[in-house]
Amino acid sequence: MPPEPGNPRPAAFLELEHVLAERLSTKVRIEMGVNKGRMTVEFADLEDLERLYRVINS
Asked: Tens place of pLDDT for every residue, the chain, 58 residues?
């Protein structure tokens, strides 16, 4: 869901993306639709996904 022209993403989303990216050491993207949102967390491979799992569950 790309942002609509002239409708910038909320600063709170950008700040939260930054905080999560720092904590998880990877790119994080937060998007909000009409009724629900989506958070995308990038990972390189299975080992990186397992690392993210450990960080999230610690």
From this structure: 555 566 688 999 999 999 999 999 999 999 998 999 999 999 999 999 999 999 999 9
Residue 32 forms part of a structural domain: yes
* Residue 42 belongs to some domain of the structure: yes
> For the residues of the chain, what is the DSSP string, one character each?
-PPPTT-PPPHHHHHHHHHHHHHHTS-EEEEE-SS-EEEEE--SSHHHHHHHHHHHT-
Crossing angle between the packed helical segments 11-24 and 46-56, to the nearest 10 degrees: 110
For residues 29 and 21, give the distance between their C-alpha atoms in angstroms, rounded to a whole number. Answer: 9
